[in-house]
Structure formats: structure tokens, C-alpha cells
Amino acid sequence: MAPTVSFLLIIFISTISYISSESVIRFPSEKDLSGRFHKVRAEDDLYCDSWRLAVETNNIGPWKSVPARCVNFVAKYMGGERYSSDSKVVGKVSSAFAESVELDGDGRDAWVFDIDETLLSNLPYYENNGFGKEIFNETSFNDWVDKAEAPALAASLDLYNELLELGFKIFLLTGRSEHQRNATETNLLLAGYDKWERLILRGSSDQGKLAIIYKSEKRAQLVEEGYRIHGSSGDQWSDLWGHAVASRSFKLPNPMYYIP
Amino acid sequence: MAPTVSFLLIIFISTISYISSESVIRFPSEKDLSGRFHKVRAEDDLYCDSWRLAVETNNIGPWKSVPARCVNFVAKYMGGERYSSDSKVVGKVSSAFAESVELDGDGRDAWVFDIDETLLSNLPYYENNGFGKEIFNETSFNDWVDKAEAPALAASLDLYNELLELGFKIFLLTGRSEHQRNATETNLLLAGYDKWERLILRGSSDQGKLAIIYKSEKRAQLVEEGYRIHGSSGDQWSDLWGHAVASRSFKLPNPMYYIP
Questions:
Q1: Sequential pLDDT tens for chain B (260 residues)
Q2: Which residues does chain B have within 8 Å of residue A248's beta carbon, measured at their own beta carbons?
Q3: Where does this protein have coiled-coil stretches (chains A, B) (predicted)?
Q4: What is the Cα–Cα distance from A90 to A164, expressed in whole angstroms?
Q5: Is residue A171 in some structural domain?
Q6: Which of A147, A143, A145 is nearest to A117 (CA)?
Q7: B89 by DSSP, 3-state: which?
Q8: Domain annotation covers residue A141
Q9: A50-A55-A57-A58 Cα dihedral, nearest 10 degrees
Q10: What are phi and psi of A88, to 5 degrees?
Q11: Which of B11, B86, B250 comes nearest A50 by C-beta?
């Protein structure tokens, strides 16, 4: 064999041998070579994952928009398998709790659901509106609500149907307003929800109230009517905390916006 | 050039060209070839990350030990940069809130800290005890407490010192018992904590109470004494919820154990 051939063979074999020694090898891409891109992304991912946890545990407190450095992270999270998996696990633990409840059978065993980012997903809207980067725009969101096109959150639809089978009465308690009743009902039915006991929307006397106050008052009314609120599902702590809280509250993930 | 050389060159160049087209390439390693190892690990990581979120948001409710499939995940999380980053972000948002509080300056502005997995880290103990895989063993944990060797959680030590500088009175409210007072004080001092207003441990009348009850009662006593509890930091919801709660509560991460 000519020396050139031997030389090339040695390079080739040692390259392949190096490649095979690890399952994943990183080679410089254009982006790597262009500078700090990957380092910054990795640091952002670490920080933004911690920011997201602090949002979900309510450590952050009130916030108006997703931090600029976390917008890509949130977009990736919401569109990827993590959001879906996180929602599914919440659905499973809710369902395990529901199965453990001894229902009285008097028609007063209740479960309360929030709607947006709980039963319905507004991800198609937020995909076109910066994934929480922009401050909430009521006009454009209301236009989206009127379209009645929001898909169901798959994990919540499964839970909803199981609760009905178990015999729970389902109450839908939303921050949406009375004038959105028709669009909301249409959307829920199109998304596969059915047989709710009552859909509670903000009436004229509820306007301007913090969600945590408005929702607590409505739950208190249900308790006064004799309902036992065993479970409550929502993506905001203001769906769940306050007074007349459920025996068990289930917080669905939502790193896109905050409602006080 | 001889045909053999040309042939080898073409293979070599096309291999390198393929490698360069993406920044990360996966080649089969022994583990990949051996079967489902990587797939199972990836599925476990996705599930266990969702399980951890459900723990941190208290969706899971009471649990006795880390699920078997998540023990490796928890070990990796606790020992890696994510636990450290998550704790740091909680410290930063706590500190931002503390700076926003207008202190009265009458010596009644209070902050309440839990101790274990809040001020002190028992990670060296849990590293030797399965990272939450095993059900809590009071005897071996008490032996560890007596050693007074737990290091500070770095993020909490920074917050603690800033709170002192801002003028907060610091109360340490722990589920540890009175007989552990000396070991606890020694450990806190060795870890760098100093100048607390009061260290509150379980007395004989507190034994057997749920943590959420015991801690609520002790906070209520502070409020009766005229303290305004602006902030509270703990790794368990039972450190933070109940009654006489702080104006703002900060939940530190802990996927290793649950205290009701």
C-alpha cells in the first residue's frame, strides 16, 4: 500500500474510532464558531427553568410579562413534550385523588374548573402573540375568544370525562365575561366538553375584582348552596387560593401569563 | 492519484462533511446497542421532571418516598446545577421582595425561616440514604443532626445576611425537637448563621402535631406578640401554609421528602 493510502487510512480509522468512543459528540457548527451563542443559551435555559419553577410555586409573585431572555425557553417548553407531560401528570394525580373521594351521591359533590389554560388551550393565540413576551392585550384576546377555536387541553379533557363518570357535578368558573358566554359554550362543546352543571362568568358586579376575590366569592356561593367542593383545577393560584377553597387544589402549568 | 486513494478520500470527506452538517451527532454506543437503556432513561427524565414539578406545586399531596424510577433523577437534580440554580432564584426573588418592604423600625418586622433544606442542607445525609428512596428514618436522621455538620444552603445564607442588614428580626421555626437545640445552634453557627431573634423547636406539647398546625400556632404567637411576619421561607408547604401566614411565602425546592 502506498504511504499516502496508509496515512489516509490511519486518519480515517482514528476519526471513526474517536467518534465511536462516545455516544454523543459535539462538532463545531456555524453557531458554535460564531461565539457565545451556545453558552448564553445554556445559561438562559438553566435560569429560565428556575424562573419557571418560581412562577409555578408562586414565588415570583405578580409579573407582567415573560422576561426577554426566557421567551425562547417558554416557546420551546409550551410547544414541546414537557408542557404536555407536566399537564398529564397533574391530570393523573387529580384523577387519583378523585377516585379516592367517597361521593355522597346527593348531587352535591362538586369539582371546579377554570377554563383558559385549564380546559381550553390558547396556545394558538400565544404562538402569534409572543408567548407571553407582550403585555396582555384584552382586545386581541377577546377577538380570539370570539372565534371559539381553542383546542382542549388533552389531559384535562380526560380528567373531565372521568369526573363525570365518577358522578361529580362540574362547575366552570372563568374570568371571562358574560358577553362571552355564547362563544365560550360553543368553544367548549367543539373542544369535546359537555354536561357541566353551571358555567359561571363575570357579571357586571364582578368587573374590576381581582380574580382571587371574584373566584372565592363564587365558590363561597356554591358552598352556601350545599355543594362540597372536593377538587379544583386551574393554571393560576388565583383560581385556587382565597377562601372557600377546595379540599384539594391542582395547579396546572402556565409560564405565559399571571393573573392576580 | 490511485483509485484506492480517491475512494478513501471520498469516504473520508463525505464522513467529515456529514459530521459538520449538524452540531451534535449521535453514534451508537455500547449502551444504545444494548437495548432500551437510553429510551427508558429519557422517558423517566421527562416523567420525573413532571413529578418533581407536581411535588413543588403540592399537586401530589402527601407522599412517603421518591418513586423508584425517579431516584436517579432526584440524585442528579440535587447534586447538579439545577437545584443550585432553583434555590438561587428563590433567594433572589425573596431578596427583591424584602427590599420592597417598608420596615417600621420598631423591631417588630419579622422573617421566619425553616431550617432543614432551607437554611441547612442535609444533602450529605441523603446522599448516603438513597436520596429520598427510603422512608424517613428518625433514628439515623437524629444521629446526623447531632453531628452538627450540615452545610449552609448558599442562596439562603446570602438572603439571611441581607435580611439582617435590612433590619428584619429573624425567627427560626423548625420541626426539630428541644433536645436538639444545642446541636442545631452549633450547626447553624458553624454554617455561618448568626444573630437570630429566636430559635423555636418542638416542645413536649408540640410533639405529634402536624407540622402545618405546629408552625401555624407558633407564627400566631409571634403575631400576638406584635410581630409583622413579612416573609417566610421553607422547603415544605407545611412551613408556609395554614394560618398566621406571612405576607409573602417562598417555597424552596425539595424533591427528596414530604412533611405534612
A1: 444 544 444 444 443 333 333 333 343 344 444 445 566 788 899 999 999 999 999 999 999 999 999 999 999 999 999 999 999 999 999 999 999 999 998 999 999 999 999 999 999 999 999 888 888 889 999 999 999 999 999 999 999 999 999 999 999 999 999 999 999 999 999 999 999 999 999 999 999 999 999 999 999 999 999 999 999 999 999 999 999 999 999 999 999 999 99
A2: 61
A3: none
A4: 18
A5: yes
A6: A145
A7: helix
A8: yes
A9: 140
A10: -65, -45
A11: B86
User: How are strands ordered across the β-sheet holding B228-234?
Assistant: B198-202, B169-177, B109-113, B228-234, B248-251
Domain count, chain A: 1
Residues 6+ away with beta carbon under 8 Å from A73: A44, A45, A48, A49, A52
Best of A73, A89, A245 to substitute, by most chain B Cβ atoms within 10 angstroms, is: A89
At residue B212, what are phi and psi to the nearest 5 degrees? Answer: -65, -35
Which residues of B, range 31-70, sit inside 8 Å of A by Cβ? 31-32, 38, 46-47, 49-51, 53-54, 56-61
The grid cell for A255 is 409560564
Cell of B21: 452538517
- Enclosing domain of residue B202: 87-251
Question: Which CATH number characterizes residue A48's domain?
Answer: 3.40.50.1000
- Distances from the Cα of B256 to the Cαs of B32, B64, B144, B259, in angstroms? 30, 10, 16, 10
Round to whole Å and give the CA distance between B159 and B92. Answer: 8
The answer to the question of residue A4 being in a domain is no
Q: Which of B101, B123, B93, B96 minimizes the C-alpha distance to A52?
A: B93
Phi/psi-derived region of residue A151, left when phi > 0, alpha when psi is between -120 and 50, beta in every other case: beta
Q: E strands within chain B?
A: 24-26, 109-113, 169-177, 198-202, 228-234, 248-251
List, in sequence order, every residue forming a beta bridge with A113; answer none if it has no partner.
A172, A233
B51 → closest Cβ in A57, A82, A89: A89
The C-alpha atoms of residue A91 and residue A85 are separated, in whole angstroms, by: 10
Say how far apart CA B40 and CA B24 lie, in whole Å. 21
- The CA radius of gyration of chain B, in Å to the nearest whole number, is 24
